[in-house]
Amino acid sequence: MISILLLATGTFLTAKDSLNDFGERKTDTSFSNKIQGVEMPAQSRYVGYFDIVKNVLNWEMPVKKTFKIRKIVIYSIQGVGEGNGADLKIEIIMQHKTVFTCTRQTCTL
After folding, report:
1. Residue 47 phi, psi (nearest 5)
2. For residue 33, what are the CA distances in angstroms to 1, 26, 59?
3. Tens of pLDDT along 13-24?
4. How far apart (Å, rounded) are the C-alpha atoms in residues 86 and 2?
5. What is the pLDDT of residues 49-70, one digit of tens each?
6. Distance CA 52, CA 93 (A)
């Protein structure tokens, strides 16, 4: 969120510059030379999305798109729950509302 604040206030013009500065300031060089900035890929992507909204879309949110989920593929279930799919449950939640749910009995396996 600090990187987004730096973008929003105009301290930096791009997500890359903001993330780099934050990483350099957060890094304790007495402990390690490895940059210790935003560590989660999802956080870096979010800063990039904010950059697009600010600099490309001029603070306008993108047009909503409707997507249809055609298939959910689970490649391995071993080690999850009972490990055999008996306790499988899928929920799709959008805007804090469950829009789809199924269990092993109601989903096709």
Report:
1. -65, -40
2. 23, 11, 36
3. 999 999 888 887
4. 43
5. 999 999 999 999 999 888 888 8
6. 25
